[in-house]
Specification:
Layout (H helix, E strand, L loop, with lengths): L9 H10 L5 H10 L6 E5 L2 H11 L3 E5 L14 H9 L2 E4 L5 H10 L4 E3 L12 H8 L14 H18 L4 H26 L6 E6 L3 H6 L3 E6 L9 H13 L4 E4 L6 H10 L2 E4 L15 H16 L3
Parallel strand pairs: 1-2, 1-3, 3-4, 5-6, 7-8
């Protein structure tokens, strides 16, 4: 059983101070002056988990543009010239470094004054498998797992940093941002409790996924993730990896192979057929589509909990 950890505050507020680029007194004043007529803060979010935080915390005070449209796999994002221009013209950019190289490059080149990198607001870890090590040998980049939003505790840490960033960008509405941040953190705290209580009596602990997006979730709740692909959902598993997964499924009495909404389910369903296992959806919440089992982050995560409980035989 994994002990529920408190969500730190002081460290997050300190971190966001370091990650806000060029947030000088002059730029803050200019931004506030631009909104004296009742305008909103223009926020650019790199993909859905960042969009959700900005909208939940900003509410009516923000206008959020998302670079990754529904149905687009975030890892594959290519920006248009118009999107690059939006980054440069925005009041605030919220993104997750190293997940989307095109976004990182555009932010570096845009000269945007206020950019919040979510990876600086929590702690990333190397949660990779042997399959991820194969990817690293191929030169795909950092081995740190970027999927921090799938751990509600880490996601709440990021939420606090985004809230602090909005307070600095729009001090006139700071009280509202603090109130909305507190409400969102409470909601994520409740989600963490549901997962903790809902998975502590599971008969099984091992689950197989299309790619290793659920490492933080597994670590938080005492489970073991086995990915068909590594951190990159488009990577192809080797025959040795498929054989290894078949052995794992038999040894650990795995019942289900999970597929995703935005990545191909072909390999997952083939593995399930070859091993006589069921298939089900486990959503990495990288975007909300018609296939999503919920209308927002919390609803989809609650659906994920139900899927895990069913697959793991929760008592």
């Amino acid at each position: 059983m994994t002990v529920r950890l408190p969500i730190p505050t002081a460290a997050v507020i300190s971190a966001v101070t370091l990650t806000l680029v060029g947030l000088s007194a002059c730029s803050t004043s200019d931004t506030a002056a631009d909104r004296e007529d009742g305008g909103t803060v223009d926020v650019v979010a790199s993909f859905y988990p960042m969009q959700y935080l900005a909208e939940e915390i900003g509410r009516d005070h923000v206008s959020v543009t998302t670079l990754t449209k529904p149905g687009v796999e975030p890892h594959d994002l290519e920006l248009t010239p118009q999107q690059t221009a939006q980054i440069g013209d925005s009041d605030l950019v919220v993104y997750l470094k190293d997940l989307q190289p095109a976004v990182d490059e555009a932010i570096d080149q845009s000269g945007v004054k206020n950019a919040v990198d979510a990876t600086a607001l929590t702690t990333l870890e190397d949660l990779g498998t042997a399959n991820d090590e194969d990817e690293e040998e191929g030169g795909t980049g950092s081995s740190l797992d970027p999927h921090v939003w799938l751990d509600p505790v880490k996601y709440a840490e990021i939420a606090k940093g985004v809230g602090a960033a909005l307070e600095k960008a729009d001090p006139d509405n700071a009280a509202d941002y603090r109130k909305n941040t507190d409400a969102l953190v409470d909601k994520l705290d409740g989600l963490n409790t549901k997962f903790t209580d809902g998975l502590k009596n599971s008969a099984g602990k091992v689950f197989i996924t299309s790619h290793t997006a659920f490492g933080y979730l597994a670590q938080r709740y005492g489970l073991e993730q086995q990915g068909i692909a590594g951190l990159d959902p488009e990577s192809e598993p080797s025959p040795a990896r498929i054989k290894e997964l078949q052995e794992i499924a038999e040894r650990d009495k795995v019942t289900t192979v999970f597929f995703e909404t935005l990545a191909s389910d072909r390999t997952a369903k083939t593995l399930a057929e070859d091993t006589g296992l069921k298939t089900d959806l486990l959503d990495p919440v990288e975007g909300i589509t018609e296939q999503s089992r919920g209308d927002d982050y919390v609803e989809v995560m609650e659906a994920n909990l139900t899927s895990l409980q069913k697959a793991l035989g929760t008592k």
